[in-house]
Amino acid sequence: MQDKRKEKIGLLLGFVGVICFSLTLPATSTAVPYFGATIVGLGRAVIAAFIVAIVLLVRKERLPTARQFKSLIIVSFGAVLGFPLLTSWAMIRLPVSHGAVELALLPLATAGFALFRAGERPSFKFWLSSVIGAIAVIIYASFLGLGQLHMADLALLAAVVILGLSYAEGGQLAKELGSWQVIAWAILMAAPFFIVPVISQFSLEMLHAPLTAWVSLLYLAVVSQFLAYVAWYGGMALGGIARVSQIQYLQPFLMILFATLFLNESISWFTIVVAMIVVISVIVGKNTTITKKDAKTAQINIIKE
């Protein structure tokens, strides 16, 4: 009974995280024309670093162990460096709806890495629902004529792979280090290396950027880079990485919805129908059985290797 309650809380936190992440591409698309990909992609971590440093000092959090430090490098590389920089670069060249469709493949990447990093074994039914959700968004992309790959597409696909590994690693590490501590330490580790590139790209003209651009940049720094991960990693720690990752199938359609509200992008009935199919796949997927690798079996496999 306690496990079911933890799972529900985990799914709720995961949903909150997904809502926050869904505003990331619209905010990035708004901020990049005024600040550039480097400042939007890396500057958000520099700003967030000041916040997390204060929080870590006030709470007197213990330093991560050497083993945890290695995992934090993976989280930092994906969530703090790779994904923000690649998506910022891509959003100069692509509309939000394009990026949203390709990022819909993120749950599959996360669940796949979870097999190796967290020892979770999704059932056939889980994978079937995942594939149905992925096919739905691929058909959606093809219908809109977004199937032709170019460098921006490759950047987004690389971002999916990198962030999928980061999610799986961070979700596992959150169980022992704490959800918000994972992303906080990852930001603090990476930010000092970003200061020089960010300063080199800054110009006085950026001070005259409109309020919407500044609000978008601050949102990316405070919410997308930190608070959203607190909810997301906490959700995966409680509800399981593979299962909570299913909620991400809602993300592309939430992104499109927010793009419609804030960027005046259009939305069609076809989008709504595909969104319903994806929602059904999430409901089916989250109710499937997900097992852990048997510790004894895993030990035998290691010995054989």
From TrEMBL:
<keyword id="KW-0812">Transmembrane</keyword>
<dbReference type="InterPro" id="IPR037185">
    <property type="entry name" value="EmrE-like"/>
</dbReference>
<feature type="domain" description="EamA">
    <location>
        <begin position="9"/>
        <end position="139"/>
    </location>
</feature>
<dbReference type="Pfam" id="PF00892">
    <property type="entry name" value="EamA"/>
</dbReference>
<dbReference type="InterPro" id="IPR050638">
    <property type="entry name" value="AA-Vitamin_Transporters"/>
</dbReference>
<feature type="transmembrane region" description="Helical">
    <location>
        <begin position="34"/>
        <end position="59"/>
    </location>
</feature>
<keyword id="KW-0472">Membrane</keyword>
<dbReference type="InterPro" id="IPR000620">
    <property type="entry name" value="EamA_dom"/>
</dbReference>
<feature type="transmembrane region" description="Helical">
    <location>
        <begin position="71"/>
        <end position="92"/>
    </location>
</feature>
<protein>
    <submittedName>
        <fullName>DMT family transporter</fullName>
    </submittedName>
</protein>
<feature type="transmembrane region" description="Helical">
    <location>
        <begin position="126"/>
        <end position="143"/>
    </location>
</feature>
<feature type="transmembrane region" description="Helical">
    <location>
        <begin position="98"/>
        <end position="119"/>
    </location>
</feature>
<feature type="transmembrane region" description="Helical">
    <location>
        <begin position="180"/>
        <end position="199"/>
    </location>
</feature>
<feature type="transmembrane region" description="Helical">
    <location>
        <begin position="269"/>
        <end position="285"/>
    </location>
</feature>
<feature type="domain" description="EamA">
    <location>
        <begin position="151"/>
        <end position="284"/>
    </location>
</feature>
<keyword id="KW-1133">Transmembrane helix</keyword>
<feature type="transmembrane region" description="Helical">
    <location>
        <begin position="211"/>
        <end position="235"/>
    </location>
</feature>
<comment type="similarity">
    <text>Belongs to the EamA transporter family.</text>
</comment>
<feature type="transmembrane region" description="Helical">
    <location>
        <begin position="9"/>
        <end position="28"/>
    </location>
</feature>
